[in-house]
Amino acid sequence: MSDIGQPEQPERSAFEVRNRRLDRRRERIREQLRRDRAGDHKVPTWALALLLLLFIGGWAWLVFSA
After folding, report:
1. The three-state (H, E, C) secondary structure of the chain, written as one string
2. pLDDT means per 10 residues in the chain (66 residues)?
3. CA dihedral (59, 62, 65, 66) positive or negative
4. Model pTM?
5. How many C-beta neighbours within 10 Å does residue 7 have?
6. pLDDT at 65
7. Would you kindly state where each structural domain of the chain is located, as residue ranges?
8. Which long-range contacts (CB under 8 A, 24 or more apart) does 45-54 make?
9. Residue 2, CA atoms < 13 Å, CB-side half-sphere
10. Phi, psi (5° rounding) for residue 11?
């Protein structure tokens, strides 16, 4: 539905919708890569890896000691 005097927007095909969705996804990925390469990390990678290792080790200890 359009206002009086305003032309109706043509309906988009499934191909156009899918293509636009892929373009937006690619742009989000590019933006994420740009931020990652800038190095604006709040927590160093080694600290996250250590935290994960401690978590898995603690979980394994609970499972095997029970």
Report:
1. CCCCCCCCCCCCCHHHHHHHHHHHHHHHHHHHHHHHHHCCCCCCHHHHHHHHHHHHHHHHHHHHHC
2. 70 88 95 86 89 98 92
3. negative
4. 0.46
5. 7
6. 93
7. 14-65
8. none
9. 8
10. -70, 140
